[in-house]
Amino acid sequence: GESVGLHLPTLSVQEGDNSIINCAYSNSASDYFIWYKQESGKGPQFIIDIRSNMDKRQGQRVTVLLNKTVKHLSLQIAATQPGDSAVYFCAENEETSGSRLTFGEGTQLTVNP
Amino acid sequence: NAGVTQTPKFQVLKTGQSMTLQCAQDMNHNSMYWYRQDPGMGLRLIYYSASEGTTDKGEVPNGYNVSRLNKREFSLRLESAAPSQTSVYFCASSEVGSGSGELFFGEGSRLTVL
């Protein structure tokens, strides 16, 4: 079946370094790819999304890259801060499904001071 | 604004008991969702409501029922709880036509079934 997954379950970085979180997907019909951040004990929070006809989108300190050839999505966080420590989920969505997202398993990002 | 509010935040049930998780949003969103999250896993969709008066099954609907009471409220009911339903439940809402998938989540309801 269709699925969205992540390459690594954990990632540890030093404060100030750049972080890269990866995601593989298999649904070629997805129209949007989305990144969510989930802090401990809280609900997921939208970070950034990218439409399938784009290959790069930048936000504040974050960049999402999409490679449809190899069905790969990544989230880059610049100058990682302790407040970035969280679980990061990628998700995919087909517009025809409304906003019924399919989530990956998540990557735990730990930022060391 | 409170956003998406879920109650209760914690609940312990015995096998076979029933309970209802409540969810309310104050963002005037048309669409609402119930997800469950199990340890080390992503979120899986249980039920969703695209608009007031409609509900549809998601990926894992067995053992659950939902009610879209009005535009603001969407409840999830476990009629006969099972240990396999031990999980964290998240309610979410979104703008209609928000194809990008920006959902607004509540803080979660942590359910343990003994």
Write up this protein.
- The complex is a heterodimer of chains A (113) and B (114).
- Chain A has strands at residues 4-5, 10-14, 19-25, 32-38, 45-51, 56-58, 62-67, 72-77, 86-93, 102-103, 107-112.
- With 113 residues, chain A is an all-beta fold.
- In chain A, strands 2, 4, 5, 9, 10 and 11 form a 6-stranded mixed sheet that branches. A 5-stranded antiparallel sheet of chain A has the order 1-3-8-7-6, with no helix packed on it.
- In chain B, 0% of the residues lie in helices and 49% in strands.
- In chain B, β4 (31-37) and β5 form a beta hairpin.
- The chains are: A mainly beta (113), B mainly beta (114).
- At the A-B interface, β5 and β9 of A face β5, β9 and β10 of B.
Short overview:
The complex is a heterodimer of chains A (about 110) and B (about 110). Chain A is mainly β and about 110 residues long.
Biggest interface in this structure? Answer: A-B, 26 and 27 residues
Shape of chain A: globular
User: What Rg of chain A is obtained from the alpha carbons, in whole angstroms?
Assistant: 13 Å
The string of secondary-structure elements of chain B, in order, is EEEEEEEEEEE
Care to count the β-strands of chain B?
Answer: 11
Protein traits:
heterodimer, A: 113 residues, mainly beta, 6-stranded mixed sheet, 5-stranded antiparallel sheet, 11 strands, globular, B: 114 residues, 7-stranded mixed sheet, 4-stranded antiparallel sheet, 0% helix
Any chance you could write out the topology, listing elements then pairs?
The complex is a heterodimer of chains A (113) and B (114).
Chain A: E1 4-5, E2 10-14, E3 19-25, E4 32-38, E5 45-51, E6 56-58, E7 62-67, E8 72-77, E9 86-93, E10 102-103, E11 107-112
Parallel strand pairs in A: 2-11
Antiparallel strand pairs in A: 1-3, 3-8, 4-5, 4-9, 6-7, 7-8, 9-10, 9-11
Chain B: E1 4-7, E2 10-13, E3 19-25, E4 31-37, E5 43-49, E6 56-57, E7 64-68, E8 74-78, E9 87-94, E10 104-105, E11 109-113
Parallel strand pairs in B: 2-11
Antiparallel strand pairs in B: 1-3, 3-8, 4-5, 4-9, 5-6, 7-8, 9-10, 9-11
